[in-house]
Predict the 3D structure of the following.
Amino acid sequence: MFVPFNEIPDDSKLWIYISNRILTTLEKETLLGKVEPFLERWRSEGTAFKSSYQFLEDQILIVTGYGDDFSLSGCAMDALMKTVTKWGESLGVDFTTIPKFCYRHQDLIIAGSRKDFKAAVEAGEINDETIVLDNTLLTLGEFKTNFEKKVLDCWHNKVYQKALSKV
């Protein structure tokens, strides 16, 4: 069941979907018109649970789920992934390619493949001070405190260091 985002506790489960580009106003309205109805009927093994979302910077969709003794079934996770994939396809954007390397560059969020990330390092677009987005976090609390960090402090660092060694 959908609830307001501020009612979701920090220990709730979290799924982060980052589009490969900023959505237009119309695309954003279309997407947001679908999220709440989906969450209202989203179930795990037939059991309702609290869920909510936020759409940040016209590019980042975060979905949360929480309940007493909460355990989301594989079918429910698949339903979320398939639905978000379908939404992205209908809008001509990619929310679900994994792994997705995301970082901030000149007031933009760049989301791409490992190959794209390596190329950006080699081109000098990414340095030790670059802020990356950790889309592997599992709880809302982690998201609030650890979503954005320097490349040296995130899982991106391994790929960053390897690409730097080729420069």
Observations:
- The longest helix spans residues 74-91.
- The chain has two domains: 5-91, 101-164.
- Residues 51 and 65 are 4 Å apart (CA to CA).
